Amino acid sequence: MHREPLLALLDRYDARHPSESAMTARIRQLVVAHADCFERTCRPGHITASAWITTPARDRFLLVHHRKLDRWLQPGGHADGQTDAAEVAMREATEETGLPQLRHAATGPEATPLDLDVHVIPARYDAAGSLIEDAHEHHDIRFLIIADGDLTPQVSEESHAVRWFTPAELQAVTDEESVLRLWRKSTP
């Protein structure tokens, strides 16, 4: 079954982070119940993946100022049918930052994500008030990604800006708990 690798990844995450079992169970429930969980049309939500990008020294973190949500977030997006969440995170990181040398911090058969999160995406309406997209959940699988070499990011169509932040700068631009949790988990 195409969902088995993600379920195995969730099992590994659950074993390493037992205090987060409620979040793991919530994502697992979606994956088990919906064969189409990797498609953005799946409701009540679907699998997404994102990248917490840092330098090898883990002293700076790359965020994008999201065009639709109007806030600083880690790069990420929809699986769009792709079933390997780590590959989705890498694809989104590359597309949204333009950085040429990215690598997963954790590799191999026992690799686990940095974090898991389920969050609600609000409904979107056009200028006339017609519904474009209903409110739904993103079941986000989040990976730690290291940027090597040229660290000059490029702005994509999905964001207003892309910028490196020190820990102090990060805390000054966001109070979003899920972003701050990524930072705390990524620092040695």
TrEMBL record:
SUPFAM superfamilies: Nudix (SSF55811). Gene3D superfamilies: Nucleoside Triphosphate Pyrophosphohydrolase. It comes from the Bacteria. Residues 44-188 form the Nudix hydrolase domain. Coiled coil: none annotated. CDD domains: NUDIX_Hydrolase (cd03674). This is NUDIX domain protein. It comes from Lacipirellula limnantheis.
